[in-house]
Structures are given as structure tokens and as C-alpha cells.
Amino acid sequence: MTSRKRSGSGSKRQLKEKVVQIYESFFKGEDPSLGNPNFWEELFLLKPKVPSLEAEIQKLSGEQLVALKENINILFKQCISTLGHEHHIRVVYALQTLCALIHSIYKKTSGEYGFDIINILMGFEMAEKLMQDLLDHCNNFLTGDYPASLKALCLKLLLVLVTGTENVSQNTLLEYVMINSIFEALIQLLCEPATRTQHGHDAVLLLTLLVNYRKHEAANPYIVKLSILDDELALNGYGQVITSCLTEFCRQFTAQHTEPQSGSWLSSLTSMVGSIFVSEEGGVRTQQIRANNAVLVALYEAVHLNRNFITTLAHTQTDTSAPPSPSNTLNSSQPTPDLSVPPAVDIFAQPSNLLVTFFQYCSIVMQDTKSEASVNNVKLCFLILTCISEDQYANSLMHDVNLVFKVQLHRLPMRHRKLAPDKASPSQPLASTLLALRYSTSDGDFKDNALRLTISLINVRAIINHFSPKIEAWLASQGLSTPSEDQILDVVRKNYDSLTLKLQDSLDQYDRYAEKPRHAAFFTAMVRSVVNDTRQNIDFASLDLQLILQEFSSIS
């Protein structure tokens, strides 16, 4: 014992973990497997040290990285080979090592010219076979009877692959994901409530990013498959993932603005306005807005590509499970919720659906357009609304007087307007709610569009201007201030014949929405934003080994 304490720096070298020593040796160009036929079997029984592995790769110069290509190719190949091992821990550790290796190589080559990610990772001659094997294993893990933790790690590996480059269309590795489809595996996760709860957000995120791979340049099988998807369970599952994310954001907003306020009305107003729009350097606000970009792009792609998805918009949500989502709450100081525990359900809540939730979300984000992130988020919302409003079936749903919902719309606080949201909003067709989102102004960059909107509402104004004085006169004659609905309808009927409306021509003729060329650059930027945010939030370094072992034992 004494000799160990006196050994000084030599003791520190002895205390360095074996796997770290292997990494150091490996990225010095040495072959630690020489003389040890069981080396790879033993390596994948050692828990990976992700920070150490990434640090070794980041220390390399460009020339050193190229010189170590053979070693990196061997490590990549051995990781994939181990995914078929019968020993569960080896499979998990191989997946984790792959995540760290691919993530680090992407990071290292992103700013370097002349380095091809395919050649550095696996070599051109073996790339097709190795990527087919890798994606076959991924499909197997995602669709087979495997623990949730293994499925989650597999999805993280796929997200590492998909988010390797800022511009998803420049990610050459995705050509292999186009050839060896994972579409069906991701859809299966959305069909089953249990897997949707645990993996739904990642599945939808992957589908969204893959759909945007070279979408205007070449045939993309994910676009084709999403556009013709007619599985009701899958479409509803896709919609429920989006609904739950937006619902949580709306719930946090509502809770924050219905908390009891102490002090004067001025302090209450100042506190609320400040909590919405004021944050340290705008960072928190921007993060809150950007966090929803992924599900909004997912909603856009579904509405834009798949007419069958329109039926999901008005589908009453009965599944209260909330899939994991990125940090999109309005209070960053709150602890991360335990997603394994189902959220409390408000038994007094009205039946809801994706459209209702989306309208409520729009009313919140429209209040803040001071930053570029906010403007982009609102623009994306209105493009989604445009696609919805152009669909004939969606219009029939929104105008159906027998299909009514209570939608909680949020408005900016003003002197004449209560601070709390109007919870007593009437049940009405969704088209009525959509009209309540309208906003026009006679100045600004969009004054021409605002003028066109004002002109198109000429009959709405005529109805209001015609009946308002009639109703007021009747109320005065009756000495009433709060008439009933039947009394108002009676006044309307008696004065309907004298109402004059303008007959509008060619209402069914308009320029239909097209993403390209007008909005192509916008969506490229939005997807780039989603890629960057996703890449920063992928956590494949932390694993609960005890939980993984328990899950494997329960299955076997």
C-alpha cells in the first residue's frame, strides 16, 4: 500500500480506466487487438467513456485523422458486427460507441474540406454493406421485442446520423437511409400507445427530417410514403405527438397567467407582460419559441403532403399520454417533469383535438413578434393554416355547425381587456375561431395584404353595421341590457329582408399554395434550425445500466 502511495504520477497512470487507455492507444495508430483474439469481445463489455472517446478524436489534426482511417473503419465495423451479439450489454455499449464515434467524426469534418464522412467512417468499398447491416439492426430493434431503453438509444443513433450536417440535404450518409428505409419501423412506434408515449417525439422528428432530405432535388421515398399513408392508427398517433407537445406549451402559458397576483393592478400587469416578453438577452424566450419548431414543421409536412391527415385534425383526443418532447415550457426554472408518470387529467376539460390546440397555440405566439425566431414561428403557423384552409374536407369540418368546440384564445393584455384568458368562450364551429385570429392594419410591410383582407370582409362588416343599430334600438325600447339568444335571433329575422350584401364573383378561384419557389428558402432555414437544436440536445452519454438490465431480464 505504501509503495502505491509513493509512486506519484505512475499511480495516476495506473488509475486511468482501461477503456480510456484503449482509446488513447487506438487513436495513436496502435492496434490493441494484436495478440488478443478476444479483444473486441472484451472491449464491448467495458462501459464506453463518451467524453474520452470524443476528446481523442477532436485532438486529431486533419492529417492524423486521414492517417487513422483504417483504425476508425475497423472500430466502426466491429461496432456494427457486435449489434448482432446475443449478449445484451455488448449490444448497448456498441450502440453507444457508434453514437459517440459518428457524432465526433461529423463534428471533426464539418469545418474541413476534402474529408468525406463515408470514407473516414467506413471506407467507400464497404459503405453500402455496413450501412445496410446497421439499418437492418435498427429496424429489428425498433420493431422487435426489445427494451424501451434500447429502442431509445437506437433512435438517438439515427438522430445523430440525420443531424450530422446543418443542411440535411448535404448529408451524404442519408442516401443509405433512403435506400434502406426505416419509415415502417417509425410508423409502427406511432401506432402503439406504449411505444408512442416513450418514443413518439423522436419518431416524428426523424420522419420530419428525412422528408426534408433533398425534397426539391430528387425522389425521396419518405415523401412518397408519408403522402400515401392511410393507416388511421398511425396518422392519429402522429397527430397525438404534435398535440401533446403544443398542449403542454399552452398549459404552461395558461397556468402562468392564472396564478394569483398580489399587489396593485399595475404590478400585476407589469409582472405578466414582463414574464411573457422580457428575458435575459432574449435567450429564454427564443428557446421557448424554437423548441416548438420541430413539431410545427412535422404538422406542416403532414398537412401539406397527406390529405388523409386532415381527418386527424378534428379527431377528438382520447389518449392522454404525453410523448417526451424538448424543453418547451415557459418557466425554465421548473424541474424537468417525470415523463414516466402520466400527467393529471382535468376532468372538466372540454373534448379537444389538434386543430383546437393549434388555434390556441397560434393565439399565444402571435402576441410576440419582436424577434426573428418569433416571426418565423408565427409565419410557419400561418402557412399551416393556409394549407388547412385550402383543403375542401378541412373546410367542411370547420364549418360544420354540428361539430363545435370551445377554443381558449389568448390576447394581449390591454386596459379594456381582462388579464385572464376568457375561459367562458362559447362552443362554436372552428371556422368562427379561425376568423377570431384575423388581424389587419393599414400600414406596415403587409398593408397591401391587409387591404385585400379588409375588402374581402365587406359582407361581414355589412352584416354587423346593419344589425347592430337594429338590436340596440330594440334593447332601448324594451329597457333591456342582456337579451337572450332567442330575442336576438327574432330581431335578426325581422330585419333580414332589408339586409343588402354584395355578390362576390370567383370566390373558388385563387392561387393555390406552393412551397417552391416562394417558401423553399424559409423551410430550409427552419429545418436547419431544428437540426441544430436537436443535435445539441441528443444525450447518448448517460445510460442507466441497472434499468437496462432489468428491462432485458423482464423480456427474457
Task: Tell me what you see in this structure.
With 556 residues, the chain is mainly α. Helix content is 60%, strand content 0%. The chain has 29 helices and no strands. It is elongated and about 105 Å long.
Helix and strand topology:
Blueprint: H1 2-6, H2 9-15, H3 18-26, H4 39-43, H5 50-58, H6 62-67, H7 69-82, H8 88-109, H9 117-121, H10 124-143, H11 148-162, H12 174-179, H13 183-191, H14 193-211, H15 221-228, H16 232-257, H17 265-277, H18 283-290, H19 293-305, H20 310-313, H21 354-365, H22 372-389, H23 392-398, H24 430-435, H25 447-456, H26 458-478, H27 485-494, H28 520-537, H29 545-555
Helix pairs in contact: 5-8, 7-8, 8-11, 10-13, 11-14, 13-14, 13-16, 14-16, 14-19, 16-19, 16-21, 19-22
